[in-house]
Fold this sequence. Notes:
The chain is α/β, with parallel strands linked by helices. 41% of the residues lie in helices and 13% in strands. It has eight helices and five strands.
Amino acid sequence: MRGxxxxxxxxxxxxxxxxxxxxxxxxxxxxxxxxxxxxxxGPGFSLRVxxxxxxxxxxxxxxxxxxxxxxxxxxxxxxxxxxxxxxxMLELRAACARQAIExxxxxIAITLAGSALxxxxxxxxxxxxxxxxxxxxxxxxxxxxxxxxxxxxxxxDWRGLLRGAAAxxxxxxxxxxxxxxxxxLAWLWHQQGSDMAFGTWSFCHTKIACRCCRAxxxxx
Length: 220
Ligand SMILES: O=P(O)(O)OC[C@H]1O[C@H](O)[C@H](O)[C@@H](O)[C@@H]1O
């Protein structure tokens, strides 16, 4: 898509995506977008997320996006049967119909093989289907296609992300515990008490621009 081989049905490139999903099916992509996309990089591929069913929020998102002609619609649901996600998808389908745009030609499903969403995407011939795996928890799915496809669309080094995750996986197994970052974090947590007593410490190991971290930190 970024190479221009997959184009919208009007022959122009896709310039953005709307991701529909909730919980783990939306937070990982939002975190990647917030943490990795430079705020000063100028117009690039845009990622908008529809993660609730608030009619005013949906109306705002559609107004901001304008025409959907060059917009991909990523429908993300591990179970493939989450009602809020289905409602969001139906809203976007209706918006496409209002604009005389074919929904399946820009729709991509990320879901468990054989789920209701997967079957719908297959039946209607959506642009693409990507798998989730049963053994990956929804809330930890950012390194599956849930996060990697948006990362790739945004132009980020998704292979590098996977390499980094593999390195952390190895590092998390290191002994002795004092050289193991996961064990050190667990120890710090334990020392602070088990009662979410985060008030006395904080850490920020990536970019200040990470809105998700900022939102979380400010609530501590
Ligand atoms: O990915 P889905 O099956 O649509 O589920 C989406 C989300 O649903 C609920 O909010 C669960 O608590 C989350 O853990 C899950 O990520």
